[in-house]
Design goal:
56% of the residues lie in helices and 9% in strands. With 370 residues, the chain is an alpha/beta fold. The radius of gyration is 26 Å and the shape is elongated.
Length: 370
C-alpha cells in the first residue's frame, strides 16, 4: 500500500490514530484506533455515512472506547507502528478502491475494509447495528455520482448540502416570511422558469428593493404546490458563496466545489434549481481570481438545459459583467424589479406587522406604519 494513494483525510486519520495510540501507551496502531479518530474527524464523512447506514454512533463510540481501555499499555516505548491487522485493512481498502474504480483510497474504503475484512473491527460495527450492505448503500447516497479522482474527494461529497441552502425546505419549515405585493414579479419569474429555452431569469434592481424576497416568495409557492405543473415537486437551492470560498486554500479548490454542486444538480435530472444572489460576484469577468473559470463552468450547463438558474444583481453590475459576455447574456432573461409604491410598501408593512409583534413582544399601531 503506497501512502501517496491515500486521500488527505485518510492520511490525517492514520496520523491521528498514531497520536491516539501514543497517548494511550499502546505499542501498535490498531483498526480500533482508526475507528475512534474517524468518528471524531473534523469535516469527515465517516459519521454521516455511518449515520445513513443506521449506526448507533453513541454505542459505537462507547464500545470503541471500552475496547481501547482494555488494551495492554507499554510505558516509554518507541512511536507506535502499524499493526499487521491495520496493514491488512489498508491493503484491502486499496483493493476496494480499485473495485469501485477510484484512483485514491478514501475514508469510505477504510470503513468497508474494516467492516468486511477485519473480524474484531467488524464486531464493533455489528454491535452498533452497521451491516456491510447498509454501509455500501449509505456510501452511494453520500457520494452520489462522484468518483475519487483526487486527494480531497470528501470535501466535494454532498456538495448541495454543504454549499447551498434548500429554500423550499426552509419554506415548508416556516422559516421564510410571507412575501407581499410582489405577485407580478413572482408570476413573471415562474413564467420564465417554465420556458423550454432561455429559462433562467435574472432579477435586476437596486440593492434593497426585494430581489431575494421575490425568490423566497417563489420557494413558498413551490412548497405549497401553488406553481405551474413544470415547477411542481422541484427544489430551489440558494448557492452559499461564503461556504464555497471558506477554507479553499489551494488554487482551483473553489472551482472544484462549484463543479461538484453543478454535477449534483445535473444528476438530479431537473429536480433542483439554483438561486445565485449577487450573480456578478460569480461571473465577474476578471473581478477575482478564478471568476472567469466559474462563468465558463456555468455556460455549458446552462446551454445544455441541465441547470435552471435564478440570478439577482444590480443594473450596473449586469451591464458591466453579464451583458458584455454574449454567451452568458444569451442564457439569462432579465426581470426588472422596481421599488414598491407607497401603497405596496404600506401593505408589506401591514402584512409583516404581526410577525414582528410576536417576535419583539410589542404592539405596533397602524398609525406608526403610515
Amino acid at each position: 500500500m503506497r501512502i501517496d494513494r491515500l486521500t488527505t483525510k485518510s492520511r490525517e486519520a492514520i496520523q491521528e490514530a498514531q497520536s491516539l495510540a501514543a497517548r494511550r501507551g499502546h505499542p501498535e496502531i490498531l483498526p480500533e484506533h482508526l475507528v475512534a479518530v474517524l468518528l471524531g474527524q473534523e469535516g469527515g464523512v465517516a459519521r454521516p455515512m455511518l449515520q445513513k447506514a443506521g449506526a448507533d454512533l453513541d454505542a459505537l463510540e462507547r464500545t470503541v472506547a471500552e475496547h481501547l481501555d482494555k488494551l495492554p499499555k507499554l510505558q516509554g516505548g518507541s512511536e507506535p507502528g502499524l499493526s499487521r491487522r491495520t496493514l491488512n485493512v489498508l491493503n484491502r481498502a486499496e483493493d476496494h478502491a480499485k473495485s469501485m474504480k477510484d484512483d485514491f483510497v478514501s475514508v469510505e474504503h477504510l470503513l468497508i475494509a474494516m467492516l468486511r475484512d477485519d473480524k474484531d473491527a467488524a464486531g464493533l460495527f455489528e454491535r452498533a447495528r452497521v451491516r456491510p450492505d447498509a454501509l455500501q448503500n449509505a456510501i452511494k447516497d453520500v457520494r452520489g455520482s462522484q468518483r475519487v479522482t483526487d486527494q480531497d474527494p470528501e470535501g466535494k461529497y454532498q456538495a448541495l448540502d454543504k454549499f447551498t441552502r434548500d429554500l423550499t425546505a426552509a419554506a415548508r419549515a416556516g422559516k421564510i416570511d410571507p412575501v407581499i405585493g410582489r405577485d407580478e414579479e413572482i408570476r413573471r419569474v415562474m413564467q420564465v422558469l417554465s420556458r423550454r429555452t432561455k429559462n433562467n431569469p435574472v432579477l435586476i434592481g437596486e440593492p434593497g428593493v426585494g430581489k431575494t424576497a421575490i425568490v423566497e416568495g417563489i420557494a413558498r409557492r413551490m412548497a405549497a404546490g401553488d406553481v405551474p405543473e413544470s415547477l411542481k415537486d422541484k427544489r430551489l437551492h440558494a448557492l452559499d458563496l461564503g461556504a464555497m470560498v471558506a477554507g479553499s486554500k489551494y488554487r482551483g479548490e473553489f472551482e472544484d466545489r462549484l463543479k461538484a454542486v453543478l454535477k449534483e444538480i445535473e444528476s438530479s435530472e431537473g429536480q433542483v434549481m439554483l438561486f445565485i444572489d449577487e450573480l456578478h460576484t460569480l461571473v465577474g469577468a476578471g473581478a477575482a481570481e478564478g471568476a472567469m473559470d466559474a462563468a465558463n463552468m456555468l455556460k455549458p450547463a446552462l446551454a445544455r438545459g441541465e441547470l435552471r438558474c435564478i440570478g439577482a444583481t444590480t443594473l450596473d453590475e449586469y451591464r458591466k459583467h453579464i451583458e458584455k459576455d454574449a454567451a452568458l447574456e444569451r442564457r439569462f432573461q432579465p426581470v426588472f424589479v422596481g421599488e414598491p409604491s407607497v401603497e405596496n410598501t404600506i401593505a408589506i408593512l401591514r402584512g409583516l406587522k404581526e410577525k414582528y409583534e410576536v417576535h419583539h413582544g410589542v404592539r405596533i399601531k397602524d398609525a406608526a406604519l403610515v
